[in-house]
Write a sequence for this structure.
């Protein structure tokens, strides 16, 4: 019974990474300064939040971690290109 429970937990964890705006812990490593907005969305999917202003735009994602924990991943774009990005742990 324990292997079945472990397998079910793994499937649910991996499925959780595919919710809109949710990413797995390894995915922030796919982003680099200078990428276009389109490249970011292609690699990570549609963001959970978008905070635009006159010059910048911040794409927000939720990183799904084991045991229901989460962190936030923010990608700052200036002129449509990645200027910076960070993981915000709680």
């Amino acid at each position: 019974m324990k292997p079945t429970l472990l397998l079910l937990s793994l499937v649910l964890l991996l499925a959780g990474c595919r919710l809109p705006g949710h990413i797995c812990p390894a995915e922030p490593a796919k982003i680099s300064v200078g990428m276009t907005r389109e490249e970011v969305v292609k690699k990570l999917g549609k963001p959970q939040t978008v905070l635009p202003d006159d010059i910048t735009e911040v794409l927000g994602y939720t990183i799904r971690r084991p045991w229901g924990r989460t962190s936030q991943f923010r990608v700052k774009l200036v002129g449509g290109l990645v200027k910076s990005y960070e993981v915000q742990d709680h």
